[in-house]
Amino acid sequence: MSSCIALIVAAGSGERFGGEKPKQYLTLAGRPLLRHTVAAFLAHPAVTAVQVVYQPAHRAYYDEATAGLGLPEPVPGGATRQDSGRLGLERLACWPGGAPETVLIHDGARPLVDPGTITRVLAALERVPAAIAAVPVFDTLKRGEDGLTAGTVDRAGLWQAQTPQGFHFQTILEAHRRLAGAGLTDDAAVAEQAGLSVALVPGSPDNIKVTTPDDLERAHRLLGVSLTDVRVGLGFDVHRFAEGDSVMLCGVSVPHRHRLEGHSDADVALHALTDAILGAIGAGDIGSHFPPSEPCWRGADSTVFLRHAVELVRTRGGVIGHVDVTLICERPKIGPHRAAMVARLAEVLGIAEDRVSVKATTTERLGFTGREEGIAAQAAATVVLPGSAR
User: Fold this and answer.
1) Are 257 and 351 in contact (CB under 8 A)?
2) Would 5 disulfide with which of 100, 101, 353, 359, CB 3.0-4.6 Å?
3) Are 130 and 197 in contact (CB under 8 A)?
């Protein structure tokens, strides 16, 4: 199959979860659930694009969760899960360059889908028109009435359906159109009602759907177990002073009798930290990603560089565990601005403030920093990536 689009259905209100924010936008390891979900499909080599179905009332949450991913305009969902799936498919039918050959439909609040599950569903579509990830039911099942058991359900042949659910695109679109309004709870049910053969392929017990607070806590634990490759990167940078009235440090403008000279905004701390993160994942240095010879980076906000490094980590399924920045200068004094710097770094990195350290020291009036000719910065970043088994 030469083209496959992942359709992420994230239009639910999350009423069973509770709380003011819909569950698909809650934070897991420093970023929203929906971002984890989308990133898993963007990173898969067989997926050519990702389209999200959302609730327009959640637009601000959606924009924050998907910032920088380059996704197409989201599709407004419908009153039911079946309606939202059909509306997403209708958008794909008008896709620029033509509709895809296959589609993977996935729950927005199922953030721990692994590449192997995606691959197995796609492989099944080479022999059948529909396939779903699923796991066999091992627990004994009871039917209940009024809080009491009313019998045992035979679990033989029972499977727990997951997503992604994969389909030949035109086939599932026609099925959705024909069965619109039937009140079916997933796209496999639509395919079954339309008389299609639906293959079961092995899913993963870890591919959970976050429905309750306990599910979110379990997702935190599972993500922590999968992240076993701990790396540390180091960065160092120097910028000289020039005439001015403030310096940018850790994304904060600090009043001073000079500014820092550089091709961008010359934020020496962010440059060192960006290099530390890039070093931890073996991705070169800041200059290889943002060459100073390119005029477009003249005067650029250095948070752009740092966000890029963070996104590279996230694309690989990793998280930033901790950062430590040391500023080396006589002046300006860093202490009065430390809290603002920590808060700004935590915001850009998408981690808690207690995972950010900003310190300052002097060189006892020795060297170029001692002569107040400029500022140096060194940084360390701890990055945790999925282990090789994943």
Assistant:
1) no
2) 100
3) yes
Domains and CATH numbers, the chain: 4-211 (3.90.550.10), 227-386 (3.30.1330.50)
Size (the chain), residues: 390
Query: Which stretches within 125-245 are classed as H helix?
Result: 169-178, 187-193, 213-226
Dihedral pair phi/psi, residue 253, rounded to 5° = -80, 120
Handedness of CA 332, 337, 340, 346 (dihedral sign): positive
Residues 6+ positions from 59 with CB-CB distance below 8 Å: none
Determine the Cα–Cα distance for residues 307 and 350; give it in Å rounded to an integer. Answer: 9
Q: What is the pLDDT of residues 164-213, one digit of tens each?
A: 999 999 999 999 999 999 999 999 999 999 999 999 999 999 999 999 99
Beta bridge partners of 76: 54
DSSP result, 324-353: EEEEE-SSS-SGGGHHHHHHHHHHHHTS-G
Query: Whole-model pTM above 0.70?
Result: no
Q: Are strands 227-243 and 374-386 parallel, antiparallel or unpaired?
A: antiparallel
Q: Show the tokens assigned to 358.
A: 């900003």
Structure tokens, 372: 């107040």
**CA–CA distance, 303 with 186 (Å, rounded to integer):** 41
